[in-house]
Amino acid sequence: MSAPLTAPAGAPAAEPDAGAPVIQTSALSKRYPGPVTALDALTVTVAPGITGLVGANGAGKSTLIKILLGLLEPTGGEARVFGRDCQRDGEQIRGLTGYMPEHDCLPPDVTATEFVTHLGRMSGLPPTAAKERAAESLRHVGLYEERYRQIGTYSTGMKQRVKLAQALVGDPRLLLLDEPTVGLDPAGRNSMLELIARIGAEFGISIVVASHLLGEIERICDHLVAIEAGRLLRADTITSMTQVRQVLLVDVDEGSDELLAELGRRGLEPRRHERSLLVGLDGDATYDIVRDAIADLALPLNRLEQRRRRVEELFQDDDDDADALVTARTGGGPSGGGGPSGTPEAPHVR
Amino acid sequence: MSAETGVIHDIGYRRYTGRRLGRAQIVRALYWHSLRSAFGLGRGAKAKIVPVIVFVIMCLPAIASAVAVANGNPRLVPYDTYVFQLRVVLMIIFVAAQAPELVSRDLRSHVLPLYFCRPLRRMDYPLAKLAAFITACLAIIEIPLVLLYLGTIAQSHSPHAIWTQTRAFIPGLLVGLMWAVLLAAIGLAMASLSGRRAYATGGIAIYFFLTWILAGILIAVTQRNVVRSATINPPPGARPPGVPATGPIKVHMMTQVPTTASHLSGLVSPFTTLDGVRLWLGGTSKGALPGVGGYGALYGAMFLVLLAASVGGLFARYRKAGAL
């Protein structure tokens, strides 16, 4: 048997246009009869690397993915993937793209090997190559030993890995992952996120991860695109986003008033949040200041954690304490004055 | 690399640089995959039970005929109807059991988005499934016919005899093609409505059986009973007791005569519709219908309407169901 992986290309695989952005949309709109506006004049460019597509449920993430795959016609504007028009060249784009749906999409009564092999065939791989690449994809996602078991016997985490393997089997240049950690326990989430990060970094595949949990995907993304109600809220690199985002929650059993004053004296700008305090997080130094303040006051510390926040909170109006805090730190709030981070932008773009 | 070490080395990610198949070849791969699953190939032994049993039973009349012909008897079954009732029952079982195998499973486990995000077009999926299932039905219907033909001509020694058989055999193949196309289309269209296999199988079986029984009842009750009288004059030895020894006897016979209603009754069932088309196109063997009168074209039209509705329904289903 010959080795198709190294065989000379009979028909050269469609390669992405060099230099073209991975994804580019301009004034992209999608209105459903109803009238429901899923996407509203969305203009965004996605560079190579791992990009988080964040937004609340119903923000338009899935609609955007369907348009990018050429499966849905936009009502206005245009979308390009690797420089190709999504409406006209949908087939080519789908040949370059792997897609992992949010919902369950696996038959229970076939083995992972059979299933991924078949979908490899459907991605245009010849029979032998499909078998080899299915085995490789399953190995990459960590399912080598179990690959001859029926999918119905798998845990949720393993099923998510099969979904990722089928997206990977056709050697895509772009992966579109829709809520890849949904339904997983914390350990499962971590290993899934690590896996995605590894695929992005080591496999050289651009990845778009759609999620409603910013705190989760921030860890692995280079870029972040936030959408709300079909509009672009913000697109930026992860570092400039996280500077205004990270918040430390401090919970002491008693003496929170003293701590509030003390932290203020030490240059932080704490805010009350229910029974706890919220402090803008600016690296390890913030932890040190909080620790020292509590130690000096000899207060019983109950909880000290980086607050995991949902995207919709981050971009909410100022009725949320944390957002008020962030606004304050960046110069728009009642206490005035630039925060220590010196972030140039306010978190609200509206 | 030594063969005795069992260590898996992480060789990292390798790009695929080999040949990529075009859309037409992907559709062909899906066609083969679906055709195999219609016979339970590549799946467990349980999945093969129905297709194998149906196929074996369908072949039995052809084998029996071959044995009879080998012993000097004439061919037992006609090519154009085969054993009509047996074929109806076996095809109902096959279509009801296997059509859901092709489409309901994918619907049930929501696999479709994984097809549609690949370099296929939306209509390629139902197209491949339909072509595969027509092929499967064709195999179940036509292979026994081929056996019947081969078993017959094996004992034919003159070219003329072989030609006579061939001329009867070819229309039989065409009738089988009509059956395969229509039954596969109806079966898949109905199966595509439900992701639950049991519902799909039940729905198909009930539709086929009920319409088949209904057609039979309608044909029976709409035929007119006619008393025919005749005068005969049997020789003295052949006269039943109680009859005068000489002179002509008047006898009365009750026969059933098809009416317009009974000519049209066959339109309610796909099987009798197929038989009506066969009669219209010149079929001579006795099938399910007493005749089509002057309504043969109506059966032709009904065949086309059933086919168009099924194929149209199947494709419309996937135009909508493809939402990711």
Q: Which radius of gyration of chain A do the C-alpha atoms yield?
A: 23 Å
In CATH terms, what is the fold-level topology of the largest domain in chain A? Rossmann fold
The strand count of chain B comes to 2
CATH superfamily assignment of the largest domain in chain A? P-loop containing nucleotide triphosphate hydrolases
Distance between the termini of chain B: 45 Å
Low-confidence stretches of chain B: none
In words, what does this structure look like?
The complex is a heterodimer of chains A (350) and B (324). In chain A, 33% of the residues lie in helices and 23% in strands. In chain A, helix 3 (112-122) packs across helix 4 and helix 9 (256-265) packs across helix 10. The longest helix of chain A is centred in the middle third of the chain and has 17 residues, at 186-202. Chain A has 2 domains: 23-237, 3-Layer(aba) Sandwich (Rossmann fold); 244-329, YebC, transcriptional regulation domain (Alpha-Beta Plaits), CATH 3.30.70.980. A 6-stranded mixed beta sheet of chain A has the order 6-7-8-3-9-10, with helices on both faces. A 4-stranded antiparallel beta sheet of chain A has the order 2-1-4-5, with helices on one face. Chain A has a 4-stranded antiparallel beta sheet with strand order 12-13-11-14, with helices on both faces. With 350 residues, chain A is α/β, with parallel strands linked by helices. Chain B is mainly α and 324 residues long. Helix content of chain B is 62%, strand content 6%. The A-B interface holds A 4-7, 9-11, 13-14, 62, 65-66, 69, 71, 91-92, 94-95, 97-99, 101, 103-108, 114, 118-119, 121-126, 129, 133, 136, 139-140, 144, 166, 170-171, 199, 202-204 and B 8, 12-23, 25-26, 29-30, 33, 42, 105-106, 108-111, 113-122, 322, 324.
Give a summary of the structure in a few sentences.
Chain A has helices at residues 61-68, 90-96, 112-122, 127-140, 156-168, 186-202, 214-217, 238-243, 256-265, 284-297, 311-314, 321-329, and strands spanning 23-32, 36-46, 50-54, 76-81, 84-85, 97-100, 174-178, 206-211, 223-228, 231-237, 247-252, 271-273, 276-280, 301-306.
